[in-house]
Amino acid sequence: MELLGNITSDRPLLVLAVKEEAQSFDTALPVLLTGIGKVNAATALTAVLAREPRPSGIINLGTAGALRAGWSGTHVVGTVVQHDLDGELLATLTGETYGAPIALPDGGDVVLATGDAFVSDEAVRARLAEQAPLVDMEGYALAAAAELAGVPLRIVKHVSDEAGAGADRTWRESVAACSRELDDWAAEHIPAYRG
């Protein structure tokens, strides 16, 4: 976890997983780099939100794999789901619901599936494509932490790869261009982004 800048109650906090995703950013806003995966994302954001001041909102900017053909570009996420938690089985064991989908207030119809595995397998991709068009490794955890703290969250993802064979190579090759696209999106959609 690394926090760049100072959090104030009148500005949003930008949250990204790794420095590669933020390499093109030119902003006066605070940036939290959580590390990769749900545990890192949840603990980093929770630690920041546990102290004062809290940001006016949270904007998660990052990369995502496309689970369906034809998906590219930048997308605002409307719903996040966990693809690696068997909520139905847990409900039969405990009678409790765990890991229900989380709807985001400013999102549209785009569903993001979050899990701790980097998806680079065609069979896994096909199975996940039944749930969502995009996949990442932090979104659901960030949404759960923000919801618990009562701080509004927006998730914006730029497609970096096709979440199939060779996705790891494609991510490494495309992450710099993705960072530039996310920087452009932020400059256009976040009023305080350039200071």
Task: Provide a concise account of the structure shown.
By secondary structure, this protein is an alpha/beta fold.
Question: Would you mind describing this structure in some detail?
Answer:
The chain has 195 residues and is an alpha/beta fold. It is 34% helix and 23% strand. The protein has 6 helices and 10 strands. Strands 1, 2, 3, 4, 5, 6, 7, 8, 9 and 10 form a 10-stranded mixed β-sheet that branches. It is globular, with a radius of gyration of 16 Å.
What's the β-strand tally?
A: 10
Give a short account of the largest sheet.
Answer: 10 strands, mixed
* Secondary-structure element string: EEHEHEEEHEEHEHEH
| SS-derived structural category | alpha/beta
Helix content class? 25-40%
> For the CA atoms, what is the radius of gyration?
16 Å
Strand proportion = 15-25%
What is the mean pLDDT?
Answer: 93
Tally of separate helices: 6
Flag low-confidence runs: none
Compute the separation of the termini in Å: 24 Å
List keywords for this structure.
alpha/beta, 10-stranded mixed sheet, 195 residues, 23% strand
Describe the secondary-structure layout:
Blueprint: E1 2-4, E2 13-16, H1 19-22, E3 31-33, H2 38-49, E4 58-66, E5 74-76, E6 79-82, H3 87-94, E7 102-103, E8 111-114, H4 122-129, E9 134-136, H5 139-149, E10 153-161, H6 167-189
Parallel strand pairs: 2-3, 2-4, 4-10, 6-8, 8-9
Antiparallel strand pairs: 1-3, 4-9, 5-10, 6-7
Helix pairs in contact: 2-5
